[in-house]
Specification:
There is one protein chain. The protein is mainly α and 55 residues long. The relative contact order is 0.06. The model has no long low-confidence stretch (mean pLDDT 87).
Length: 55
């Protein structure tokens, strides 16, 4: 038989909110890392194009 405790219901909601918040932070960090990687790739590509025209 299941044991239902009404006092633990609030903790479950708070835990779900905290996990959702953490997931949002992680997703934002991943997006920022992807943007930084694309910017770095662009800078390297421009530098390589400039070097190839000089040599």
């Amino acid at each position: 038989m299941a044991h239902l405790d009404m006092q633990e219901t609030g903790d479950g909601i708070e835990t779900a909110r905290q996990q959702a918040r953490t997931t949002g932070y992680v997703h934002h960090a991943q997006i920022m890392l992807m943007a930084a990687g694309l910017a770095a790739f662009g800078i390297v590509a421009v530098a390589a194009a400039m070097l190839s025209t000089l040599l």
